[in-house]
Every structure is written in structure tokens, then in C-alpha cells.
Amino acid sequence: MADVDPGLGWAARRKRVARETQRRSAAHAAAGTTDMAPGPFSQRASVYTDPARFAAERARLFGGDMPLVAGLSVDMPNPGDRLLFEETGVPIVILRARDGVARAFLNMCTHRGAKLATDCTATARLTCPFHAWTFDLAGKLVAMPGARGFAGHDKADLGLVPVPCHEWQGIIFVQPRAGAQPVDIEAFLGDFAPEIAQLELGRAEPVKSGEMRAASNWKFALDTYGESYHFATLHASTIGITHFNDMTVYDRFGRNHRVSFPDKGAAALSTMPESAWPEVDYGGVHYLFPNTVLFIGSIEPGKGFTQIFRLFPGASPGEMVTKFAVYAPIGVQSGQHRAECEYAFDATAQVVSSEDYVIAANGWANLVNAPPGQRIIYGANEMALPGVHQAIAEAIGMPLD
Ligand code: FES
Ligand SMILES: [Fe+2]
Questions:
Q1: CB of 128 closer than 6 angstroms to any ligand 1 atom
Q2: Cα 228 to middle of ligand 2, angstroms
Q3: pLDDT, tens digit, 9 for 90 and up, residues 39-67
Q4: What's the pLDDT at 5?
Q5: Where along the chain do its domains lie?
């Protein structure tokens, strides 16, 4: 992995990045500034509404060529544990076998196609609910009642159909298409790899998960995660109280980025020497191309939470779903910490559903009725958003104008 000092543990690396972010936050808080692009950016509103572009995104981003986050290793730590991954429309089951390896398969019986797993209950084998063909955790067909009826068919040839699955640094990625060409995850992430690796997601403990929907385009909803320009208005009674409005510390890593939104405590830092600054936990919003947002936050020092948002397009340009999960970063420290992580889930789900996604939905209803040529403008202070749209446009081979 590039750019990793092998002598530096991940915790020390996070600490170093956190301090650097704190310095940048303090400077912005003192000066009333923010990281900005050289200038504003605009694109046609049809980037969100065009059915052809939407179809290309579904095919090129969600159709198997790109690895997509299906969950964390800690969501399925033991042999027999499984995850379902169905949000791209292809039913996939991920199984951890006795050898410890997580493998993904079409969730399809090789007899007559029935769906095998309908929930995430751990089992030693997968038995089809139709005629009881049974598969082991590595996808091999191990039992076939009435085998006399299948002369000439070898059990060895009737294993589950695999799809590429990668377990990397505590994250499970799937490329949801049988026959897809497996990609190299570190090459895919590029210089974002150490930024994600340092999160040590393999040490997390799942606390709570659920989903949020908006009658909106998936990219229009995704935009709400990338800027703090709306904190004082849309989130006036929540994040807007604790955090500066329109203040962002931004770093781009190829198609990915990290943003940090300074809290109002940063204002006091410039009045004291750096040696007297309180130590802060590492935090930030990480956009992992194409559809995942990892937010590392903390309730108080040492008691953090990790939130993972995975956004998927629905069946039409105006439908989307977000799979949302909260984890305790190095395990749940106490009953109180668990309650705080649960609160982090509930409070965030409430803000996203009742504020961000309401705006996404009512803005969407406007976009689809806007005149041809209507443009969407992103200020220089909303600098994370153009990079996301450019990366998506490039990946689907449909340049922005
Ligand atoms: S479809 Fe699965 S056993 Fe028949
Ligand atoms: Fe928001």
C-alpha cells in the first residue's frame, strides 16, 4: 500500500492526521474561512434525471465491474455466518466457510433457480426450500435427494455460481455479477487505501443497522453528505448548533475524498499554544467511490462510532435506498457506550430522513420538471461535489458538458 510508514501503527497515523485536521480547522475558525475550489462549478440538471445516464450508472457502477461495499468482516465473523447483498437487483449471498474465507455466490439453487437464503441466520449448510438440494459453505453441492433422477449430472459441476468477493482490511466488497472480472482492491482505491485501512474496521463491533429511502436520485441524495454549507439552515436545531456552517477541511484521493466539518470548539484553539490543545479523536466523512460514505465521529474522546452509508439507485432515476449501519470502532466499551452508539444511529437516521432526504425528494420533484438546459450550481465552497460527479461521469463514459 502506498504512502504508509511501516513503522507507524494505524492509531499513531490516525492521531497524526487528526492533529493536522485540527490545525486546519483552527486556522479556518480563526479566520472565518473554508477550503474552497478555485471557482464554482455547474452541470446540467439532466445529469441526475437522464434515463440513459441512469441506465449507464446502474450498468457500469452497480453491474459488477466496480467492487461495492457489502458489509464489514465483523458482520459475519464466524464460519456459517452470512450476509445478503441484493441492492443492485442481483440476489447475492456471502458465506464464511470453515476455512475462514468469505465467498459470494448468486443466491440461486443450481437445480431450478430457487432462492436459497432469505435471511442472515447462521447455518452450517444451505438447503434449498424447493427440493432440498444442499450446499456447503464453500458453495459445493453436497446433497441431492432423489439423485437417481439426475443421471449424467455430476454433483461436482453443480456448485453455487460464484461472484467476485474481496475481504480487505475488514471490509467485504462484492462485484455483483457472475463472470465479472475481479479487480484488485488496493489498485481500485489507489492513494485512498491507507486512509481507509487506518480506520481498522476489522476491530469494529456492529451495533445497529437499517435503511432509509428517498424519492430522489441516488446521486442527488449522495450530494447531501459532502458539504456543510447547509448546516445553519437545514440543520439549524441539530448539527448547526454544534458545528460551523460552511467550513470544510477537504482532501481528495483520486475518485474518493475525505471531508471534515469543524465543530465550534475549534474557535478556542487559536487562543492557546498547540501544546495545550485537547487531543481529539480522528474523525471525518470518507467518500469511497462510487456509493459509500464512512463517517467516523465521537461522542466524547475515546468513545467513537463508525457510521456506514451505502447508497443504491432504485429501479428508476427517482428512487434510491440507503443502507445505514453503526459500529463501535474498537468494540463496545460499556453499556453506556452501546447506548451512545445506538443514539448515534437514531439521531443520524432522524436528521438524514427528516431533513437531508426531505430536501433531496422535494428538490428532485423540481429537477424532473425543470426546463431543458437547467443547470445546477455548486459553489467553490461545495468543493467535494464536483469531484464525485466527474468521477462517476468518467466511469460511465459519459462526460459532463
Ligand atoms: S430448485 Fe433448489 S432444489 Fe429444486
Ligand atoms: Fe445534511
A1: yes
A2: 7
A3: 999 999 999 999 999 999 999 999 999 99
A4: 55
A5: 10-60+191-395, 68-182
Contacts of 7 (CB under 8 A, 6+ apart): none
**What separation in Å is there between the alpha carbon of 109 and the centre of ligand 2?**
42
Ligand 1 atom at minimal distance to the Cα of residue 133: 3
Q: Looking at residue 298, what is its pLDDT? A: 80
- Given this model, what pLDDT does residue 4 score? 56
pLDDT at site 401? 82
Report pLDDT for 7: 60
Mutation to probe ligand 1, out of 109, 135, 142, 155 (largest number of atoms < 8 A from CB):
109
For position 279, what pLDDT does the model report? 87
Taking domain 10-60+191-395, whether its CATH number is 3.40.50.10330 is answered by: no
Residues in the chain: 401
pLDDT for the residue 223? 98
For the Cβ of 114 lying below 6 angstroms from any atom of ligand 1, the answer is yes
Rounded distance from Cα 130 to ligand 2 centre (Å): 46
Residues 221 and 207 sit within 8 Å (Cβ to Cβ): no
HSE value, Cβ hemisphere, 13 Å, CA-based, for 290: 27
Give the model's pLDDT for residue 303: 76
Q: Enumerate the β-bridge partners of residue 259.
A: 250, 285
CA quadruple 205, 162, 118, 314: dihedral sign: positive
Q: For ligand 1, is residue 143 a contact (CB within 6 Å)?
A: no
Query: Which of 106, 115, 126, 131 for a ligand 1 pocket mutation test, highest count of atoms within 8 Å of Cβ?
Result: 131
Q: Is the CB of 378 under 6 A from ligand 1?
A: no
Atom index in ligand 1 nearest the CA of residue 116 equals: 2
The counts of H helices and E strands in the chain are 11, 19
Cα–Cα distance between 342 and 327 in angstroms, integer? 9
Does domain 68-182 bear CATH number 2.102.10.10?
Answer: yes
Closest listed ligand to the CA of 131: 1
Low-confidence ranges of the chain (pLDDT < 70): 1-8, 300-302
